[in-house]
Specification:
Layout: E1 19-21, E2 24-26, H1 37-48, E3 53-54, E4 57-58, H2 67-72, H3 89-94, H4 113-124, H5 140-152, E5 156-162, E6 166-169, E7 175-176, E8 178-183, E9 188-190, E10 196-199, E11 205-208, E12 211-214, E13 218-226, E14 229-238, H6 248-259, H7 285-294, H8 310-315, H9 332-342, E15 355-361, E16 364-368, E17 373-375, E18 377-382, E19 387-389, E20 395-398, E21 404-406, E22 411-414, E23 418-426, E24 429-438, H10 454-466, H11 476-488, H12 494-502, H13 508-516, H14 520-533, H15 548-563, H16 568-576, E25 580-581, H17 590-593, H18 597-609, H19 628-635, E26 641-645, E27 652-656, E28 662-663, E29 670-671, H20 689-697, H21 703-718, H22 738-750, H23 755-764, H24 766-769, E30 791-792, H25 795-806, H26 832-836, H27 856-864, H28 869-875, H29 877-883, H30 888-900, H31 906-918, H32 923-935, H33 938-941, E31 942-943
Parallel strand pairs: 6-14, 16-24
Antiparallel strand pairs: 1-2, 3-4, 5-8, 7-12, 8-9, 10-13, 11-12, 13-14, 15-18, 17-22, 18-19, 20-23, 21-22, 23-24, 25-27, 26-27, 28-29, 30-31
Length: 944
C-alpha cells in the first residue's frame, strides 16, 4: 500500500464500528489475535490523538500523522520504542491518572482499558504502519459519517468510482475522484475518504488527496477497495511533461463566471458597474477581451507590473472594490489571471477549442438523515477531444436549499426530507444532479399497492425512493365529484351522485370516465384551455384585427377540431402553417394575435414546447441550454410572414412573403432557420419556412412537443405539473418524475396524439384517485403525487357551478341566455366574478394568467355580493322543494348533494336539526341560510 498521502484507508478486513453516545465514540471489544493497524489502531489515533498532533497544530512539537513523525517524537523524545510499550512515550502518557496535566488525550479522555490495551499490544508487536500512509484528524461530522458507513458496510450493493474513466493531458491537468457506495436500502454515501485508493502503476499517475494528477505518458488503472468490493477505472495520461498556454476563453473567462464578476448584479449588468462592463455570463468573450485590454490601457491590465493590474488588485481587495474580495491571492483564480497577464494578456487564436458539453457526477444521490454530505464534480468536454475537471469553475445552486444545500465547491449537505436538484452551470451549459433526502434510521417497508396502469408504477417507484407512503383511494362520493369537475367542468347532480354510489359494478369508474369523455362539455373544457394558450380574444394590437368576429371564427375553428377528436399534432400543423384571410381561414388569426417576430418566436416555443426562451434574445440563457444562435435561428422561421389588408376591414390576409431574415443580436449575422434544439433543415428558395417548422414541431422528431402536451394535461388534473410551471421547461427546472414524463410523452405519441386516451389513463390511475387526506409521511409532499391536492375550482367552472346548483342563468356577450362561462369564445369578454376569481385575459401565452389562488376579495364577493345570495333567491330551490312537500331532512340532503356531492355527516346533521328546532324564523329562511353557508364553504369552491 504505497503513496496514500493524507488518505484514510480500510482494507478488506474492515470490521471496526462505532456507536454514538452524546459526543463520545466508544470502540467495542477488539478481536483476539494480532493487532491490525487499519482495523484497530488507525481510527483510534485519528479520533483521539490527531486533533492536537497534526500539521496544523503541533502540540509538544509532536506530530502523529505519519510513522516517521511519531517515531521521531516531540519534546519528550520518540513517540514509541518498537517492541517496548513501557518505554514508549505514547504509552506512558495514556496511562497517567485522569487528573494529571500531561495525560493524553486531554480531550475526550482518558482512554478506556481496552483502547490502552490495543495500543500497548500494537507497540509490543512491532508497531506495524502501512507504508506511505498519512493520518488526519476527523471532525465530529466525519466521525458520524464514518460510523454510518461502518454500520451499513455489510449492506453495500454497489461501489462506483466517479468519473468512471480518466484522461489527463499536460502536466497541469487533474481530475477529482469521488467514490460513491450504494446500499441495500437504495441509499448512497460519499465514501471517498473511507476508500482504499491506489494506482496499479503509480508512475503513470498519482493521487494528491482526492485529485488524480499525471505522472508519465501511458495507461494504468485506478483501484478503489471498500470492504470486500473492488472497482477499477481506466486512466490514460498524454503529454505529461508538456504544458499548455493559459487561454482567455478557456481559463480566464470561467474565473469571471465563477467569481460572479459577469453576473447581472455586478459588471454583467446592462451598463456594467463602476465604469467596467462585462457581457452577462460571458456571452461575448471577444467584447470582454477588448473591454479588459483596450479600456484603461496600462491600468486595468498592467503588462509591465502584472501584480498592479487593477483587474487583480480589485479582485483580491488590495484596493477599494464595490464587490469586495472576489478571491484571495493564494487562490488558483488569482494564479490563472496573473499568469495570463504575465504572458502578455493575449487573445486566443481563432481555432481555440470550444466547450461541447458537461458531465456531472454523481447524477443521483440518496442521502440518509441531516448532515450527510456528497461531493459533486463536473467535467467539461471540448471540441479538440480533451476534457477538464471544472468543479472549481462552475456555479452551483440548489432548487431546494432546506433539503440539499450546496457550497461553491459543490459539496452537498442534506437537510429536511425531500428532493432537490443541484444545478451546475459552466460556459453555456447547465446540468443537474438529483439529490433525495430521507429521514435517518427510518423504519420503512415498501407497501404492496394495487396499480391500475403504468402511471401508478412510475409514481410509486418515486415515492419508494422518498420513503413516502401514499394516501388511500378516495371513496365514490369524493371521486365522482372530482372527475366531473376535472373532465366536464360541472358538479355532478344529486341523482348522478346517488346513482354512481349505488352502482355495484366494479368497473363503474371506468364506465363513468368513458361516458364523460364523450360529452360536449369535455370538448368545451379543452377548447377553453387551448383558447387561453392561443390568446383567442378581440381587441389586441391597437384595435387592429382580430375583432370579435375574428375571435369567434378562430374559436369555432378550434372547437370543431377538438370536437371531432382530430389528433393534436394535425391541429398544430394546420395552425402553424396556415395562410389566407382571418375570416376565410380562421387559423391564421394565430399570426394576428402577435405580429412582432420576436414575441411570436417566444410564444411558439412557450405554447408548443413549454419553453421560455426570452432570455436568449439578448444573451445566452443563464439557466438553460439556449444561446442567441438558437434563439435567432428559430426566429428565422417567422421572418417571411406577409400581411395585407382586404376590402373587408375585419380581414387581413397572411401569406408567405419570401423575404426577410433574422439577424443575430450580437454578431448581426444572418441566421439560417434552425429547429430549437434540433437540426438545420434544407429549405428551398420561396418555400414556406413555417410549414417546415410546423411539421417538425408536432412530430416525434421534436422531443419537447409530446412532453409539453402531456405536462399540460397532467397539471390540469393534479393542480401542479410534473414540470412546474408547465411552460417553464429548462434544465434548471427539471421534472419531478422524469420517467413518468417520458412515458406519458411516449404514450401520447403512440396514441397518435389522441389526448383523450392519455386523459383516460390519468383519471383511471390510482394516483389520480387518491384521497386528499394525508399521512405523516406525505403531508409535506407537493410534487410527487402521493395524495390528491386540494385545488380551488377555476373561475369559469365555479360560476357555472353556482348557476347549476341554484338553477339560475348567466348571460354573456355573444351567447344566449343560460350559456356557460366555459363557452365564452372571446377572452376580452368577462364580468366582475370571472375577473375576481382569476379568469385569464388571454393577453399573453403564460400559464400564469389563470389565477387559482384564493383571495380575500373572492371570499367577500361570495359572502356579500350577488353571486350567491341573490341567486339563491332567484332560483327558488328551497321554496320549490317545500312546495313539493319534501321533508326538511330530504331538503338538507339535497342541498348538500348539490354543493358538496355528499350527504351531511352526523355532526353536521345534528347542528342543522338543532337550528331548525330552535329558530324563531321560518323554516325556509333557515334552509336558505344553510344553502348560502354551503355555497360559501371551502368544500364547495375547492376540488379535493
Amino acid at each position: 500500500m504505497k503513496h496514500l498521502t493524507l488518505r484514510h484507508t480500510f482494507g478488506a478486513g474492515l470490521v471496526a464500528s462505532f456507536s454514538l453516545a452524546g459526543s463520545v465514540f466508544a470502540q467495542p471489544p477488539a478481536p483476539s489475535g494480532p493487532v491490525d493497524f487499519t482495523r484497530d489502531v488507525q481510527t483510534l489515533l485519528e479520533t483521539k490523538c490527531l486533533e492536537c498532533h497534526n500539521p496544523a497544530k503541533v502540540k509538544g512539537k509532536l506530530l502523529m500523522d505519519t510513522q516517521a513523525n511519531l517515531l521521531k517524537g516531540g519534546e519528550a523524545g520518540p513517540g514509541y520504542v518498537v517492541g517496548k510499550p513501557d518505554e514508549s512515550e505514547l504509552i506512558k502518557r495514556i496511562v497517567l491518572p485522569a487528573d494529571h496535566d500531561d495525560i493524553m488525550p486531554p480531550k475526550g479522555g482518558p482512554l478506556t482499558a481496552q483502547e490502552i490495551d490495543v495500543l500497548k499490544r500494537w507497540v509490543a508487536e512491532g508497531a506495524n504502519w502501512p507504508q506511505g500512509l498519512a493520518l488526519r484528524h476527523r471532525s465530529a461530522e466525519e466521525l458520524k459519517a464514518l460510523a454510518d458507513f461502518q454500520r451499513k458496510l455489510p449492506t453495500v450493493t454497489e461501489v462506483k468510482i466517479l468519473p468512471d474513466n480518466y484522461t489527463l493531458e499536460t502536466k497541469r491537468d487533474f481530475n477529482r475522484v469521488v467514490v460513491q457506495a450504494k446500499f441495500a436500502d437504495a441509499t448512497t454515501q460519499d465514501v471517498t475518504q473511507f476508500a482504499n485508493l491506489k494506482l496499479v502503476d503509480d508512475k503513470i499517475a498519482k493521487l494528491d488527496g482526492d485529485k488524480l494528477k499525471p505522472g508519465a505518458d501511458g495507461k494504468t488503472e485506478l483501484v478503489a477497495t471498500i470492504g470486500s468490493t473492488v472497482v477499477k477505472a481506466p486512466v490514460e495520461v498524454k503529454s505529461a511533461q508538456a504544458d499548455r498556454e493559459v487561454s482567455f476563453r478557456l481559463d480566464v473567462m470561467p474565473v469571471f463566471l465563477r467569481s460572479g464578476c459577469n453576473q447581472g448584479g455586478c459588471h454583467g449588468a446592462a451598463r456594467g458597474k463602476d465604469g467596467f462592463m462585462l457581457s452577462l455570463f460571458g456571452y461575448d468573450p471577444a467584447g470582454d477581451y477588448n473591454r479588459i485590454t483596450r479600456e484603461m490601457v496600462g491600468r486595468r491590465v498592467n503588462l509591465a507590473v502584472p501584480e498592479e493590474s487593477t483587474l487583480l488588485e480589485k479582485s483580491i481587495g488590495a484596493v477599494p472594490h464595490t464587490g469586495n474580495d472576489s478571491f484571495n491571492k493564494e487562490s488558483d483564480y488569482y494564479k490563472v489571471l496573473i499568469e495570463w497577464i504575465q504572458k502578455g494578456a493575449l487573445d486566443d487564436k481563432p481555432d481555440v477549442a470550444k466547450v461541447t458539453g458537461v458531465e456531472i457526477f454523481p447524477t443521483q444521490t440518496v442521502l440518509e438523515g441531516k448532515g450527510s454530505k456528497q461531493q459533486i464534480t463536473v467535467r467539461a468536454k471540448y471540441s479538440d477531444g480533451t476534457d477538464r475537471d471544472v468543479t472549481d469553475l462552475v456555479i452551483f445552486s440548489s432548487n431546494n436549499d432546506p433539503t440539499a444545500a450546496v457550497t461553491k465547491g459543490g459539496l452537498v449537505t442534506s437537510g429536511d426530507r425531500g428532493e432537490a436538484f443541484v444545478l451546475a452551470r459552466f460556459d453555456v451549459f447547465s446540468i443537474v444532479s438529483q439529490v433525495i433526502v430521507i429521514p435517518d434510521a427510518l423504519k420503512y417497508e415498501r407497501p404492496k399497492l394495487a396499480e391500475a396502469n403504468y402511471i401508478d408504477s412510475l409514481v410509486n417507484n418515486k415515492l419508494d425512493k422518498l420513503r413516502i407512503l401514499p394516501s388511500a383511494i378516495a371513496g365514490d362520493e369524493e371521486y365522482v365529484r372530482r372527475v366531473y369537475i376535472d373532465l366536464v367542468g360541472m358538479y355532478p347532480s344529486p341523482d348522478e351522485v346517488k346513482t354512481f354510489v349505488a352502482d355495484a359494478n366494479p368497473e363503474k369508474r371506468t364506465a363513468l370516465v368513458d361516458n364523460l369523455l364523450q360529452r360536449k362539455e369535455f370538448t368545451e373544457m379543452w377548447v377553453m384551455k387551448w383558447a387561453e394558450l392561443l390568446q383567442i380574444r378581440s381587441g389586441l394590437n391597437n384595435n387592429r384585427p382580430p375583432f370579435y368576429k375574428n375571435a369567434l371564427l378562430y374559436y369555432n375553428w378550434l372547437a370543431e377540431r377538438i370536437g371531432k377528436n382530430m389528433p393534436l399534432n394535425e391541429i398544430v400543423i394546420e395552425l402553424l402553417s396556415s395562410t389566407g384571410g382571418t375570416v376565410s381561414s380562421p387559423a391564421v388569426n394565430f399570426y394576428q394575435m402577435e405580429i412582432d417576430p420576436l414575441k411570436l418566436t417566444e410564444n411558439v416555443a412557450q405554447v408548443f414546447m413549454g419553453m421560455r426562451i426570452q432570455c436568449a434574445q439578448c444573451h445566452n440563457h443563464p439557466f438553460d441550454r439556449w444561446t442567441m444562435d438558437d434563439y435567432y435561428g428559430f426566429q428565422a422561421f417567422f421572418m417571411q410572414i406577409g400581411r395585407k389588408q382586404t376590402d373587408d376591414p375585419q380581414e387581413v390576409v397572411v401569406y408567405n412573403s419570401k423575404g426577410g431574415e433574422a439577424r443575430q443580436f450580437l454578431t448581426k449575422a444572418v441566421m439560417k432557420p434552425k429547429f430549437l434544439g434540433g437540426a438545420t433543415p434544407e429549405i428551398k428558395a420561396g418555400e414556406d419556412r413555417r410549414a417546415i417548422m410546423a411539421k417538425w414541431m408536432a412530430s416525434p422528431e421534436n422531443p419537447y412537443f409530446a412532453r409539453n402536451i402531456s405536462n399540460i394535461v397532467w397539471a390540469h388534473f393534479f393542480g401542479v405539473g410534473i414540470v412546474e410551471p408547465v411552460d417553464d421547461v429548462r434544465i434548471s427546472n427539471p421534472p419531478s418524475n422524469p420517467e413518468l414524463m417520458d412515458e406519458l410523452a411516449n404514450r401520447l405519441t403512440g396514441y397518435n396524439y389522441d389526448f383523450r386516451k392519455l386523459i383516460r389513463d390519468v383519471v383511471l390511475s390510482h394516483t389520480y384517485q387518491r384521497t386528499s387526506q394525508v399521512n405523516d409521511s406525505n403531508e409535506s409532499d407537493k410534487r410527487n403525487f402521493s395524495h390528491s391536492m386540494v385545488r380551488r375550482v377555476r373561475a369559469e367552472v365555479l360560476l357555472d357551478a353556482i348557476s347549476q346548483v341554484t338553477e339560475t342563468k348567466n348571460k354573456f356577450q355573444g351567447l344566449p341566455l343560460g350559456a356557460r362561462a366555459v363557452q365564452i369564445a372571446d377572452g376580452a369578454v368577462s364580468n366582475y366574478f370571472l375577473t375576481t376569481f382569476g379568469r385569464a385575459k388571454r393577453e399573453s401565452v403564460c400559464s400564469c394568467e389563470v389565477k387559482m389562488e384564493p383571495t380575500l376579495s373572492q371570499a367577500l364577493h361570495l359572502m356579500n355580493g350577488d353571486a350567491v345570495n341573490d341567486r339563491i333567491r332567484q332560483g327558488g330551490i328551497i321554496p320549490k322543494m317545500l312546495k313539493d312537500g319534501k321533508s326538511e331532512t330530504d331538503i338538507v340532503n339535497e342541498v348538500y348533494l348539490r354543493a358538496f356531492g355528499r350527504k351531511p355527516n352526523e355532526k353536521e346533521l345534528a347542528a342543522i336539526n338543532k337550528a331548525l328546532a330552535e329558530t324563531t324564523d321560518t323554516k325556509q329562511a333557515v334552509l336558505e341560510d344553510l344553502f348560502w353557508a354551503l355555497l360559501n364553504a371551502k368544500e364547495f369552491y375547492f376540488t379535493h
